[in-house]
Design goal:
Rossmann fold; Dna Ligase, domain 1; six-stranded antiparallel β-sheet; 15 strands
Length: 303
């Protein structure tokens, strides 16, 4: 690998996922420095983006709005600075759960049934069509911010109002409760799948980052042929969105063993609880090696 020059690790930012991004960025920064890379923290909430011109390359460890939604990627494109992960289009679409579903449906990939909600929605009819349990979520947030699990008739409208505080666009989604998995992608490599078993009712923010009783299984326990089928589908799902460099596709399984693609993460977490480092470790790739591999898989809109 050639010398990457002076590297900025983008962390923090202004989204609801700021604290998680600070953790991801700290881990990435330490890993790069341990391998002799001239890496420096850069918080867009505290420094002008124009200052990035003094760097040769950028590692994006931002999550959520203005970091994972194409905004920072567009700024870096304009400045001509190489950066990690997906480009503007894939980042913007991937952050939007509704439009991600539309693209996947057009490609005949299975997704959970869903409905967009607004103030004029017939909430009783939506509950009846989707069935219970169901999830209500802001369309353009990550890390389970603003998500509610609706298990009782009549609770959908209150869940909508809670999600509406985080995003103008809100979605209800049929609950697929047979198991949650994730597929990490690193370049052309699909890493071993991880099964997620939260002790809470679902894999919410606390289960992801704060609790120590969430179980992660890798190997995931699926039959090899089923795991391969899902991995190939995840590769297709990532390519359809224009994903590049690295990413993560979340998958749900129903009681009958059918799988559904849930959403994509184009700037995955790199904390001590994060799933991509976990999958990489199962493939014999250390955290430090993973960070270096990601660093050299920079993206651009011309890739």
């Amino acid at each position: 690998m050639k010398n990457p020059g002076k590297v900025a690790v983008l962390l923090g930012g202004t989204s609801a996922e700021r604290e998680i991004s600070l953790q991801s960025g700290a881990g990435v920064l330490a890993a790069l420095r341990s391998r002799g890379v001239d890496a420096h923290p850069f918080d867009p909430a505290q420094e002008a983006l124009e200052s990035l011109r003094r760097y040769d390359r950028v590692f994006i460890a931002l999550h959520g709005k203005h970091g994972e939604d194409g905004a920072i990627q567009g700024a870096l494109e304009l400045m001509g600075i190489p950066y990690t992960g997906s480009g503007v289009l894939a980042s913007a679409v991937g952050m939007d759960k509704f439009r991600t579903k539309l693209l996947w449906q057009a490609a005949n990939l299975p997704v959970p049934d869903y409905a967009l909600l607004d103030d004029s929605t017939d909430f009783a009819a939506a509950e009846a069509r989707l069935g219970l349990p169901l999830f209500v979520k802001p369309v353009r947030e990550g890390s389970s911010v603003g998500i509610s699990l609706v298990e009782k008739t009549g609770e959908l409208q209150a869940a909508y109002q809670a999600a509406r505080r985080h995003d103008a666009l809100v979605m209800a989604e049929a609950g697929i409760m047979g198991g949650e998995y994730t597929v990490a992608l690193l370049g052309d490599t699909v890493l071993p799948m991880v099964k997620i078993e939260p002790a809470a009712a679902f894999y919410d923010y606390d289960a992801k980052y704060l609790r120590d009783d969430t179980r992660y299984l890798c190997p995931c326990g699926l039959l090899p042929e089923k795991e391969k089928e899902i991995q190939e589908g995840a590769k297709k799902a990532f390519r359809i969105l224009g994903g590049a460099g690295w990413g993560r596709i979340d998958v749900l399984m129903d009681a009958a063993g059918a799988h559904y693609f849930l959403e994509v993460n184009t700037s995955p977490g790199m904390t001590s609880h994060s799933l991509v480092p976990m999958a990489a470790k199962a493939a014999g790739i250390s955290y430090e090696e993973l960070v270096l591999k990601v660093l050299y898989q920079e993206s651009s809109e011309t890739d």
